[in-house]
Amino acid sequence: YWTAANIIDDAIERVRAQVGQDEVILGLSGGVDSSVVAALLHRALGDRLTCIFVDTGMLRFREADQVMATFDRHMGLNVVKVEGKERFLDALAGEADPEAKRKIIGRCFIEVFEEQALRFSDARWLAQGTIYPDVIESAGGATGKAHVIKSHHNVGGLPETMKLELVEPLRELFKDEVRRIGVELGLPREMVYRHPFPGPGLGVRVLGEVRAEYLEILARADHIFIEELQNDGLYDEVSQAFAVFLPVKSVGVTGDQRRYEYVIALRAVETVDFMTARWARLPYEFLEKVSLRIANEINGVSRIVYDVSGKPPATIEWE
Ligand code: XMP
C-alpha cells in the first residue's frame, strides 16, 4: 500500500540498483521536484550526488541563500553554486520580447550547466525531477512551458562526449505524492508547498527589458506580498501569488513634490489545473496593508495595482 515511507524505500532501492557505485549530477533549481530528487538521491547515494545550482539573479528574494542553507549547510549535500546573474543580465540586455527573453534565459541555463557538468567528468548519470504529468505531456507532444524548462537540464543540452544517462526517480509520481515524500525526507514544509515559480523566474515578471534595478525592486515587493499572505494565513488559500514590475512611470506625490515612479502589480489566483484561473478575492484591508508596505519600504514605487483578470482571457503570468 502507498505510504510516503514505502515509496521512498522503493525509490532508493531502485536508484541504487540503477547507478551502482557511479557518480550522479543534478540540476537543482530550488523548485519542489528537483529539491525532492536531491533529498532522495542524497539518502540513496550520499556523497556520490553533486547538485549544480545556478543563481540566475532572477530568483525570489534571498532564494539562493535559502537553497544553500537548506541543502548545503543543513542537509549536507554537495551543492555547487554558480553565480550566473551577470551572464544572464548581459545576455538579456536590450531584449524586450517575452519569447526571446525565455529563449535567452533557457540558452544561458544550458551553457552554464554544460560548463559546470564538464567539471564532473566522473559522473555517468544525470538526475532529473521529471514527474508523471511531465511524462504524459511530452508523450502527448504538448509543448508545455514547464516541459521546455525541464528540458534545460536535459541530456539534450549536454556535450555528446559526456554520455550521461538519466535517473528520474519521480517519473511515476503525481505532484501531491512528490510533496508528501519531500516532507517525509525532511525538506522544509515551506519549500515543498511553495507556489509554482516559472523557470525563467523574475525575468518574465519584469515586463520588457530586464534590468538589475527592476529585479531588485520586484524581488522586494514580491517578498512583502508573500510575507503578508503568510502572516494572514492566506498563502495556502491561493494557488499562486506574486508581484509584477511594470516599467512605466506613473505620477505620484510626496509632500508637495510630484514624482514619476514605477508601478507594481499584484496577482493572486485560485485554480486547480492552472489552465483556467479565477483572481483571488483577497480582503481589501489586506491589500491595503500590502500596498502601504510596498510604497513605504521600496524607493521608486508609488503606485500599486491589483490584477482582477481571470484566465482566460489573461494568462496567470503577465508575459
Ligand atoms: P500562464 O501564465 O501560462 O501560466 O497562465 C500557467 C502556469 O505556468 C507557469 N509558467 C511557467 N512555468 N516556465 C515555467 O516553468 C515558463 O516559462 C512559464 N510560464 C508560465 C505559471 O507560473 C503558472 O503556474
Automatic annotation (TrEMBL):
Keyword Cytoplasm assigned: no
Protein name according to UniProt: GMP synthase [glutamine-hydrolyzing]
* Residues annotated for ATP binding in this entry: S29, G30, G31, V32, D33, S34, S35
Q: Intact protein stretch covered?
A: 208 to 526 of 526
| GO terms under cellular component | cytosol
Q: What class of enzyme is it?
A: ligase
Q: Write down the EC number.
A: 6.3.5.2
Q: Which UniProt keywords apply?
A: ATP-binding, Glutamine amidotransferase, GMP biosynthesis, Ligase, Nucleotide-binding, Purine biosynthesis
Oligomeric and partner information: Homodimer.
> Which species is listed as the source?
Elongatibacter sediminis
Domain GMPS ATP-PPase stretches:
2-194
Instruction: Identify the metabolic or biological route this protein is part of.
Output: Purine metabolism; GMP biosynthesis; GMP from XMP (L-Gln route): step 1/1
- The protein's superkingdom reads Bacteria
| GO molecular function, a single term | ATP binding
Q: What does this protein do?
A: Catalyzes the synthesis of GMP from XMP.
Q: Which reaction does it catalyse?
A: XMP + L-glutamine + ATP + H2O = GMP + L-glutamate + AMP + diphosphate + 2 H(+)
